[in-house]
């Protein structure tokens, strides 16, 4: 087996490393790696996996049979059923403005080909499910979990156990690489953090493939705002009763028999739909159109925005007053107007926290008008002011 002359020049900086060498590069070249999720973690991981030479076409030369040669391909698999959105571009570095609306797997593959045209890439633009997980992941040597939801994480983990494949898993939210992560839309995310964690996943994968990994079980935690930023936690030894790595007969059953969504506590709520849902008491809610009419008519109202201060500072209605949900719930009587005839309207981002705040005020039994704004500021942007920012 050999590399092309251009490959010696391309990969020479890593091949001269002690313990890496030509054999390390060859291992990368004919390795097959699958990345589940081409988002904040998957993009940087894919970028460095592809740049390192994983999944490139190899030319096998047989010295004794000079008239014969054959070609074998390593490969990189990209599994993601989502499409690129504008909000992804802050951190998902393989996508760009021109690929908004394109399947993420396809967009990421195009970007990788621009970095390394020799890559062999499987583009799988479908969701990983208990029914297809084994068949989709089985052809690869190593699996990277770059997803952002617990049900898929458990599914990938169980599938890796069943297939006996190494699994490299990462998660990120806010300024950190957490053990448990919510969605980026709910919690926020600093783009550079996903880059750090995705790069670490690529690094671990390369170490495994080249034989440089010490195989010691550790958990690495990262926080951009802490000093030091990294902490490494030694994992406990295996439990004999563990269905994943134990020594006893108890093993993971058929994956397609497990409801991973229910196992993780049910589906993630659609907060926007819940914020727009009809209340059992319509008198407790006000539509954005009615709020707009009241503001235009200069009616005296007490409009309270209960989002976090950081979000209020991003954008807000000029007529609103900021009082965080935690403040209001802690002392609701402090935030009613001194004039009993002035109604209080509560607004938030999507129309959910406002319902909690309004109920806390109504529990005071003051007989005052207290309503939450259906759909919150998202509904205001869609139905009243198209120039009002959505974040």
TrEMBL record:
<keyword id="KW-0808">Transferase</keyword>
<dbReference type="GO" id="GO:0005524">
    <property type="term" value="F:ATP binding"/>
</dbReference>
<keyword id="KW-0479">Metal-binding</keyword>
<dbReference type="GO" id="GO:0046872">
    <property type="term" value="F:metal ion binding"/>
</dbReference>
<keyword id="KW-0547">Nucleotide-binding</keyword>
<dbReference type="Pfam" id="PF00899">
    <property type="entry name" value="ThiF"/>
</dbReference>
<keyword id="KW-0862">Zinc</keyword>
<feature type="domain" description="Rhodanese">
    <location>
        <begin position="297"/>
        <end position="389"/>
    </location>
</feature>
<keyword id="KW-0067">ATP-binding</keyword>
<dbReference type="InterPro" id="IPR000594">
    <property type="entry name" value="ThiF_NAD_FAD-bd"/>
</dbReference>
<keyword id="KW-0963">Cytoplasm</keyword>
<dbReference type="GO" id="GO:0032447">
    <property type="term" value="P:protein urmylation"/>
</dbReference>
<dbReference type="InterPro" id="IPR045886">
    <property type="entry name" value="ThiF/MoeB/HesA"/>
</dbReference>
<protein>
    <recommendedName>
        <fullName>Rhodanese domain-containing protein</fullName>
    </recommendedName>
</protein>
<keyword id="KW-0819">tRNA processing</keyword>
<dbReference type="GO" id="GO:0016779">
    <property type="term" value="F:nucleotidyltransferase activity"/>
</dbReference>
<dbReference type="GO" id="GO:0042292">
    <property type="term" value="F:URM1 activating enzyme activity"/>
</dbReference>
<dbReference type="InterPro" id="IPR001763">
    <property type="entry name" value="Rhodanese-like_dom"/>
</dbReference>
<dbReference type="InterPro" id="IPR035985">
    <property type="entry name" value="Ubiquitin-activating_enz"/>
</dbReference>
<dbReference type="Pfam" id="PF00581">
    <property type="entry name" value="Rhodanese"/>
</dbReference>
<keyword id="KW-0511">Multifunctional enzyme</keyword>
<dbReference type="GO" id="GO:0005829">
    <property type="term" value="C:cytosol"/>
</dbReference>
<dbReference type="GO" id="GO:0002143">
    <property type="term" value="P:tRNA wobble position uridine thiolation"/>
</dbReference>
<dbReference type="InterPro" id="IPR036873">
    <property type="entry name" value="Rhodanese-like_dom_sf"/>
</dbReference>
<dbReference type="GO" id="GO:0004792">
    <property type="term" value="F:thiosulfate-cyanide sulfurtransferase activity"/>
</dbReference>
């Amino acid at each position: 087996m050999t590399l092309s002359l251009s490959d010696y020049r391309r990969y020479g900086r890593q091949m001269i490393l002690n313990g890496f060498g030509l054999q390390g590069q060859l291992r990368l070249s004919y390795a097959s790696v699958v990345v589940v999720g081409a988002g904040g973690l998957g993009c940087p991981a894919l970028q460095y996996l592809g740049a390192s030479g994983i999944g490139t076409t190899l030319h096998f030369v047989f010295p004794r049979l000079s008239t014969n040669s054959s070609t074998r391909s390593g490969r990189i698999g990209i599994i993601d059923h989502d499409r690129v959105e504008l909000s992804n571009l802050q951190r998902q570095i393989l996508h760009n403005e021109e690929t908004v609306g394109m399947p993420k797997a396809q967009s990421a593959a195009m970007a990788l080909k621009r970095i390394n045209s020799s890559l062999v890439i499987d583009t799988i633009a479908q969701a990983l499910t208990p029914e297809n997980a084994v068949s989709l992941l089985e052809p690869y040597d190593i699996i990277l979990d770059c997803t952002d939801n617990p049900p898929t994480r458990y599914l990938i983990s169980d599938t890796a156990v069943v297939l006996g494949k190494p699994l490299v898993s990462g998660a990120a939210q806010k300024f950190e690489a957490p053990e448990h992560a919510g969605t980026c839309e709910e919690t926020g995310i600093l783009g550079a953090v996903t880059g750090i964690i995705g790069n670490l996943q690529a690094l671990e994968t390369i170490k495994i493939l080249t034989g440089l990994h010490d195989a010691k079980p550790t958990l690495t935690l990262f926080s951009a705002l802490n000093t030091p930023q990294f902490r490494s936690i030694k994992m406990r030894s295996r439990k004999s009763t563990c269905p994943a790595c134990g020594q006893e007969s108890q093993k993971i059953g058929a994956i397609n028999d497990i409801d991973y969504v229910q196992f993780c506590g049910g589906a993630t709520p659609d907060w926007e739909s819940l914020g727009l849902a009809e209340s059992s008491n319509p008198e407790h809610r006000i539509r954005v159109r009615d709020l707009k009419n009241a503001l235009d008519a200069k009616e005296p109202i007490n409009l309270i925005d209960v989002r976090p201060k950081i979000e209020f500072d991003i954008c807000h209605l000029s007529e609103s007053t900021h009082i965080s949900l935690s403040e209001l719930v802690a002392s609701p009587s402090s935030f009613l107007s001194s004039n009993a005839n002035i109604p209080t309207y509560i607004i938030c981002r999507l129309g959910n926290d406002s319902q909690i705040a309004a109920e806390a005020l109504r529990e005071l039994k003051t007989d005052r008008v207290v309503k939450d704004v259906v759909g919150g500021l998202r509904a205001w942007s869609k139905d009243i002011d198209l120039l009002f920012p959505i974040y």
